[in-house]
Every structure is written in structure tokens, then in C-alpha cells.
Specification:
The chain is built from five helices and 18 strands. The chain is mainly beta. Strands 1-2-3-4-7-8-9-10-11-12-13-14-15-16-17-18 form a 16-stranded antiparallel barrel.
């Protein structure tokens, strides 16, 4: 364990204290020739788009201290798991400012402990319901309309979510259809990509952002975004699942929906700041009601599912920032909070969170497409949520049978190496103290090996 923790701390030292980082007064290295990062070429002069990804993430941990386990615990025995995810992206421009984007996906394999026992789970690619199988499914099917509000344009990067190579600097973007809310909200250049960067749920997304999604992370919704040169504001209305972490979505908007708003500021060069708020309306339970029913003898154990009410509201706020120091060094941070008595429903069991981290480009050692990163996360629960778990209640992710509460603390590091064209390999690890917020269990270290193919 000591050796594994030293590995994580060493990565942090490389990021924050290496002499080449600390001596900011030194001239940055000379720019290198851009490298090709896709196996197949993608032309900018075509009205259509076709690309794909394949991702394999292997993770494992050894035995760790655990005087007891529950139905939804991280298993304390040695275990290994491999997840498999492939996605095919396609799109077509119907007119200069109108496009349709479709993505087909398959998620197979599994995560350690079947993705149970951690609020900050270690693999974002894992589908939390392994019974769904690996059959391909429709992940995204979006209609995207751009309404120019000025004739002035700026260069844009063409990709699977937008096919334009130039965009009006002031515009209104409208997206409707099947989508992932976090493709457009709470994004972060340093901590949002589980295929080349960090893999942890609470690093790649805001753990307290209980955004509308089914168990695979997708929903149907409408996103409207106003973009100006130095700021953007976006809002979304999306469908919520019928049950916590469910695959089926509720189409009755009068009782169930997720409302989201975010403002993004880019006034300072190199700095981007985002603030997000959400309000979910769904058939959600109350931890307080479940606890009261247990104490008065109505329920033999606290059961959140028995105390759900259609139209109940869960709300929260969050913020994230990214900052480029130059010389290939980037920093990021996230924080978030949500209302603690209402059931965690769509993303993960976190009521408050704080994360910091950063990465360094391999250009410093003449590996321009390589990257090394480290992040620290602290997740917390509300008093009602922790008491529910202490009395033996089960959440959709957590449940050790009891709880000696402590903040779930996570340190993750990785190194991603560019092998050839669109082939990338990564190695890294995650140190976890108080897994599932339980001071009686752990700590543990989860090693990671990853292969990413970009077509």
C-alpha cells in the first residue's frame, strides 16, 4: 500500500514541483510539428462526418481492511475488471447552419464490484446495470441549428458534436433530441475525458451535479445556448429516469423533468470559469421520511423507495474553472452542492464535492501528444443521507450495512502515451480513503491500464 501511495504522490510532485515546472521564467520549449491523432483522416470540406472510438479500461485492487460488508459495498477481496466501450459518430450538414448528429454505442464488460461501493467510482465508462448487456444502442441523435447574430466569424474545430469549421462570434445554438447533458454542461478541458485523461466519476464530472440521465448517461432534451465572444449562457430541459439509476425515462413533463442553466466566462486569457445550477423534478424519495418510518417501526430497515413522491424537487449548484499557465501546463478545479434530504437519483451519491488537479503536456520531453495528470477529490454526504446509510439503508450505489462516516477522499494520477496515429495507451492509479464514506473500510489503491483507439 505504501508503495502504491508513493506512486500517486510522485505524480503530484512531477506536476506541481518538478524543476521544469517551477522555473516559470525559463523560455518554453520550441513548438514541435503537430502529430496525427486519428487512425483515419477527416476532411474539413465535406458535408458529412464519420468517426469512431474504441476504449478498453482494465482496473483492479488488492485486499483491504474491512470488518464488514453490505449488499452495495466495494468488495474487500482482490478483484479485476475490464470495461469495453465503442462509439461510432456520424453527422450531416443539411444546410450551412443546420446539421443532424447521430452516435451508436456499445458498452460491455464491467467495473470492479459491479460499480458499487464508491461515490467517486473509478471508471466512467462502466454502465451501472450490467444486466443491460453489450448490444449496440442509440446514444445520441441530435438536431443542431445555429442562428447567426452577426456576420463576424471565428475558426472552430470540426468534430462529432459540431461539423462547422467557422462559427458566428455571436450566435444562438439550438440542440434537440437524444443527448448527454454533460456533453455541453460542466465541461472542462483538463478533467472531462475518461478516454485520455482521468477515469473517475467525481473528477470527469461534478459529483454533486445530479444531471438528468438514464443509467447509460443519456436523455432526451432541448438545449438553447447564446454565445458571445467572452461569455456564453446555456439552458436545458431534459427527461428524468422513472426510478433512480433507471434505464427508462419519464415523458410526463408536468411531474418529471430536469432543468439546467450554466454561464461560462472567458474574459481573462487562458482562464475559463463556469457556474451551473439544476433542479430535478421526479418520483424521488426523502431520506428523512425513510429514517422516520424506520424509527416508528413501519419499515424494518430504512427504504428510500417506499417514500418516493412524484414531483419532488432536488436542486443544486456547481462551478468549475480551467486555467492554462502556458508551456503545456493546465490547472482545473470543481466544486458542487445539492439538497441533501432528497434522494440521489441520476448520477452518483454525492451531496457536496471539491476537486483540484492539473496536467502537463509531453512536449516538455519531446512527446507532444503525451500527457500526465493528477487530481484530488473530496466527496461528502448530507446529515440525512449519512444517517440513512448508517441505519442500514441502501442507495443505488452505496450500502455497507452501517456507516462510520468520513469524507470519501480520492487521489488519481495517469500518464497517457501517444503510440501511433490514433492509438493511445495509459497507465495510472487511484488511491481511495474511506470508500463509500466509511472510515471502517479501506484505504485501497485501484490500478488502471487503458487502450484508446481514435478512428
Amino acid at each position: 500500500m505504501e508503495l502504491r501511495l508513493i506512486c500517486v504522490i510522485t505524480a503530484a510532485v512531477v506536476l506541481c514541483g518538478h524543476p521544469s515546472v517551477a522555473r516559470s521564467q525559463e523560455a518554453p520549449p520550441a513548438p514541435e510539428t503537430p502529430v496525427i491523432t486519428t487512425i483515419l483522416p477527416h476532411d474539413d470540406d465535406r458535408r458529412w462526418w464519420l468517426s469512431g472510438q474504441a476504449n478498453l479500461i482494465g482496473q483492479g485492487h488488492g485486499d483491504f481492511d474491512s470488518p464488514y460488508e453490505g449488499e452495495h459495498s466495494l468488495r474487500a477481496i482482490d478483484e479485476r475488471a475490464l470495461s469495453r466501450l465503442w462509439t461510432v459518430y456520424s453527422g450531416v450538414q443539411l444546410a450551412s447552419h443546420v446539421e443532424v448528429l447521430v452516435a451508436i454505442e456499445s458498452a460491455g464488460g464491467r467495473g470492479i464490484s459491479d460499480a458499487l461501493g464508491l461515490a467517486g467510482f473509478t471508471n466512467l465508462d462502466v454502465v451501472r446495470n450490467p444486466d443491460l448487456g453489450a448490444a449496440p444502442y442509440l446514444a445520441r441523435a441530435m438536431f443542431h441549428l445555429t442562428m447567426p447574430l452577426t456576420s463576424e466569424t471565428a475558426a472552430a474545430t470540426r468534430g462529432p458534436f459540431s461539423l462547422a469549421t467557422t462559427v458566428p462570434v455571436r450566435r444562438l445554438d439550438i440542440r434537440a433530441g437524444k443527448l448527454s447533458v454533460v456533453d455541453f454542461f460542466d465541461s472542462n478541458a483538463v478533467g472531462s475525458d475518461s478516454h485520455l485523461q482521468f477515469t473517475n466519476w467525481a473528477v470527469d464530472n461534478n459529483g454533486a451535479y445530479d444531471y438528468a440521465a438514464d443509467t447509460r448517461g443519456y436523455t432526451y432534451g432541448l438545449i438553447v445556448e447564446y454565445a458571445a465572444p467572452q461569455w456564453t449562457i446555456r439552458g436545458a430541459e431534459a427527461l428524468m429516469p422513472t426510478v433512480a439509476n433507471g434505464i427508462d425515462l419519464d415523458w410526463n413533463l408536468t411531474r418529471s423533468r430536469g432543468e439546467n442553466v450554466e454561464i461560462e466566462l472567458r474574459e481573462v486569457p487562458g482562464l475559463v470559469v463556469r457556474a451551473v445550477g439544476f433542479a430535478n423534478h421526479a418520483n424521488m424519495g426523502s431520506y428523512t421520511e425513510a429514517i422516520d418510518a424506520f424509527h416508528n417501526g413501519s419499515d424494518p430497515t430504512p427504504t428510500i423507495e417506499a417514500h418516493r413522491l412524484a414531483g419532488r424537487v432536488k436542486y443544486g449548484i456547481g462551478a468549475n474553472a480551467e486555467y492554462s499557465l502556458g508551456g503545456g501546463i493546465r490547472l482545473f478545479g470543481r466544486t458542487g452542492w445539492n439538497s441533501g434530504d432528497t434522494e440521489s437519483f441520476a448520477y452518483t451519491e454525492v451531496n457536496d464535492t471539491a476537486a483540484i488537479g492539473g496536467d502537463i503536456s509531453g512536449a516538455r520531453w519531446h512527446r507532444i501528444a503525451d500527457r500526465i495528470g493528477v487530481a484530488f477529490v473530496s466527496n461528502g454526504l448530507s446529515s440525512e443521507h449519512r444517517e440513512y446509510l448508517r441505519l442500514g439503508g441502501l442507495g443505488f450505489l452505496l450500502g455497507d450495512g452501517t456507516l462510520r462516516y468520513g469524507r470519501e477522499t480520492i487521489v488519481e494520477s495517469y500518464y497517457t502515451a501517444h503510440v501511433w496515429r490514433g492509438v493511445f495507451g495509459s497507465g495510472g492509479g487511484t488511491f481511495i480513503a474511506n470508500p463509500g464514506y466509511n472510515r471502517d473500510r479501506g484505504p485501497t489503491f485501484v490500478g488502471m491500464a487503458r487502450l484508446h483507439l481514435e478512428f
